[in-house]
Structure prediction request, 191 residues.
Amino acid sequence: MKIEWKEDKRRILLFRDGEEVRALSPRIVSARDLSGISAQSWEAFVSALSLLEEKGAMRLVLTALARRSYHSQQIRELLTKHFLSDQVIETILSFCQEKGYVNDQEWEEGRISYLRSRGKSARDISFRLRQKGIHASFAQDDQEVLKKLIEKKYPALLREGLPFKEKAKSIQALLRRGFSLEDIQKFLSDV
Prediction:
C-alpha cells in the first residue's frame, strides 16, 4: 500500500496506490500533518486522518464563531466547502449546539430584529434569509416598520396636496423595498 498526496493552493489530493481517493482542504489538514501519520494499513490511515480532519474543522469553526455568530446552515456550508464528510460535519455541529456556540433560534431572532431596525419589509427579510439557505418563520406585520420608514425617509407622503408624480416616486421606492401596495395604501388611508 502506497499513500501519496499532491498539494496546490485550494486542496490536497490524496492517492492510494496511484489512484486518487479524495480531496482535502489545506485549511483543515496540512501536508505536514499527513506526513506525520504512520499507519500500517489503509483503515488505520483513514482513522488517523479523520481525527486530524475533525480537529482542523473544529479549529476552523471556532475561529469563525469567535468573529461573529453563525446559523448551523452557514456552518454546514462552510465545512462542505472544505471537502469534509457529513459525519464530521454533524459531529462538529452537534458539539457546537451542545456547548451553546450555535443557537439557530437566537441567530434568526437577532437577524430579523436587525433587518427590521434597518427598515426592511417582511418579504425582503424572508428573501434574504432564504438566500442564506435559512427558512425561518416570523410575524409578518409590516405596518409598524412602514410607519417608521415613511416618517423618517418619506415624510412628504404624509402631507396634503403632494403632486401625483412625487407621491408615485415615494410609493415605488417603498415597493422596491418589498412592501406590498396594499400595506402602503392601507397606511396612507389611515393617516
About this structure: The longest strand covers residues 19-24. The two ends are 80 Å apart (CA to CA).
